[in-house]
Amino acid sequence: MVKNEHMDYAYEIQKLKRQKNVIILAHYYQTGDIQDIADFVGDSLALSQKAASNDADIILFAGVRFMAETAKILSPGKKVLLPDMNAGCSLADSCKAEDFKKFLDENPGRTVITYVNTNVDIKVLSDIICTSSNAVKIIESLPPDEKIIFAPDRNLGNYILNKTGRDIIVWNGSCHVHEEFSLEAILKLKNENPEAKVIVHPECELPVRMIADFIGSTSALLQFTKKDNAKCYIVATEPGILHQMMKANPLKKYIPAPPKDSTCGCSECSFMKLITLEKIFKCLRDEKPEIVIDPEIILKAQKPILRMMKISEKLGL
Ligand code: 13P
Ligand code: SF4
User: Which ligand number lies closest to the CA of residue 131?
Assistant: First the structure.
């Protein structure tokens, strides 16, 4: 389609949504215009919970591929659409099934806990899936002597290891966005804004986590800024989350943590930012690209995700 500069995509999307009984789920790292047309905005855990329980016929996922795949696995009877199939994840891609199988063979007898940020072929090799919201609690829910493998994020893995003191072997993967934050630049900002609190996602490197006033998943960071009484925050996660922080508390100041390379803009997730209102409109209109997963794979991948959902529900998460 030729790009129509005058088309009101937000309006057209609302029309298509009603006609086709669609729910739009958006991650906090999407741009503000997308978050504003979504039916539900959340972190990976909340989005999975919403994907598993809604009355829509079609789920349109404004996020990255592993999230849309998780929605399909949890709602296999629904059509799940992702506006751009190139919206991958560097963290998911840092754990290839062939290498991971070898790693499991070399470390037998361990419960395999993987972060939801993985491709489906890793999920089928896992015992329990977790997200950054529930990782610590899921591990704490297991018997204290249970030996664990955690993959793929080394920073989240080391954070959990230190928090729980459990016997955990961590896969050496990482997210290019969260490893990009500069400790020096954050310290400089802190010096210029001594009243600011530094709030950090656990996918960040240890030196950045060490200077944090608070560490948590995207929704935990958002909740923290809502309840805390500081007036200024330096936010070390993808800056898309600032949209909800500003909506909730517009009088507070939120400073995105700068990346190591100040010229690259690489604290933004380039995969998340592939999704645009125009692509969402076309995707709803044409009902493609669609997430298609072999039903047998869905059944295998469902088990560890449902285990996560069950534990989370029990813990009230
Ligand atoms: P959460 O949504 O669990 O905070 O994860 C952040 C992330 O990196 C998603 O890609
Ligand atoms: Fe993946 Fe990192 Fe982007 Fe999240 S922010 S989708 S972990 S590359």
Answer: 1
Please, which residues bridge with residue 233 across strands? Answer: 197, 254
How far apart are the CA of 18 and the centre of ligand 2, in A?
30
3-state helix vs strand vs coil in the chain, percent to 5 = 45, 15, 40
Q: What is the DSSP letter of 273?
A: G
Q: How far does the centroid of ligand 1 lie from the alpha carbon of residue 4, in Å? A: 33
| Ligand 2 centroid distance, CA of 19 (Å) | 32
pLDDT per residue as tens digits for the range 128-140:
999 999 999 999 9
The tally of CA atoms less than 13 A away on the side-chain side of residue 311 is 22
Q: Which residues pair with 114 in a beta bridge?
A: 129, 151
Q: Is this model's pTM higher than 0.90 or not?
A: yes
Task: Give the number of other CB atoms < 10 A from CB of residue 261.
Answer: 11
Condensed to tens digits (0 to 9), the pLDDT of residues 47-58 reads 999 999 999 999
Q: Using the 8-state DSSP alphabet, how is residue 89 labeled?
A: -
Q: In this structure, what token pair is assigned to residue 72?
A: 């399909």
Q: Where are the beta strands (DSSP E) in the chain?
A: 22-27, 40-42, 58-62, 79-81, 111-115, 128-130, 148-151, 168-170, 197-200, 214-215, 232-236, 253-256
pLDDT at 6 over 80: no
Cβ atoms of 226 and 207 closer than 8 Å: no
Distance CA 217, CA 131 (A): 8
